[in-house]
Amino acid sequence: MLNGFKDFILRGNVISMAIGLAVGTAFTAVVTGFSKAFITPLIGLATGSVGDFSEAKFSVGKTVFPYGLAISAAIAFVITAAVLYFLIVAPLAKVQDRFAKAEAADPKSEKRDCPRCFTEIPAIASRCAHCTSEIEPIAVFLEPEKVAVPAAR
Asked: Looking at the whole model, is its pTM more than 0.90?
């Protein structure tokens, strides 16, 4: 039971996730600080509020609604998501696509119908297993770099 837990913890995905969470938390603090220091005051100036827009609020009776905090948090979220996507996720996806190995298709998994009895047979088959008639294999799967065809008996 403990060996399974140790394998789970030491798996690369869990460690990468923990590192990503720590970096994401630090990055979120930076973006939130940037948003509070520059973005929300600029929005406050543009909308006619004086100073920090995050302190904007309205009251209904004795209840105070600080809607500026919600808008400030939404702006910080959008900035964080955009920076993470455009600077980390999109470039890493391109790198992974560039270095991803093309998986060779399993020639036995590709199927076609026998032209004589219409049963499903492998695409590289040269004889139908059901009616035993000889069939021309599909040429795409016979290319030497894709698959090695077993020798006839």
From this structure: no
